[in-house]
Design brief:
11 strands; Jelly Rolls; 5-stranded antiparallel sheet; 6-stranded antiparallel sheet
Length: 158
């Protein structure tokens, strides 16, 4: 192969990678509901985990916290999408209530979005978190009614 051919290939590659625009998509993460834990330690015995979900087996609602893995740690524009997949039992006496928080490096809430559900079926609750703290973390805090489940939760980072 002569130098002109090699040079033409190199220039073609540079032109291709410079001119072709990359396809950007959200950085999605789906977490199993079984990652959620009782917010207060005493409630952990009321939670049954299996097949990736968590179920409240007590006769009262239990507060749970669900951790979220964050890769884009410097953005301040929140999340492009977030939802939690839940099932609320017909025997539940409390609404299914959740908040998605952005917290700073010492845990102080800086942005939040809430949603609730009072129906008796499996559904998804979505959140619109329009801001976040650089280098902070996200979490979902839910009031999990009796006989109800968290199946999974998803976040899409910008």
């Amino acid at each position: 192969m002569n130098i002109k051919t090699v040079l033409a290939i190199v220039i073609s590659c540079i032109a291709y990678f410079t001119l072709v625009s990359p396809s950007y998509s959200a950085d999605s993460k789906i977490h199993p509901g079984s990652m959620c834990k009782a917010y207060f330690g005493s409630g952990e015995s009321s939670l049954r985990k299996g097949l990736g979900s968590v179920k409240n087996t007590s006769t009262a609602a239990v507060w749970v916290t669900c951790p979220i893995v964050r890769d884009n740690t410097t953005n301040t524009n929140g999340l492009s999408q977030a939802y939690i997949r839940i099932g609320r039992s017909s025997t539940a006496t409390a609404d299914f209530w959740c908040t998605l928080d952005s917290r700073n490096t010492v845990g102080t809430q800086s942005f939040f979005a809430t949603n609730s559900y009072s129906g008796t079926s499996t559904t998804s609750m979505s959140f619109n978190l329009s801001g976040s703290t650089s280098r902070g973390h996200y979490e979902i805090l839910c009031l999990l009614p009796r006989d109800s489940n968290i199946f999974s939760y998803r976040i899409d980072e910008y």
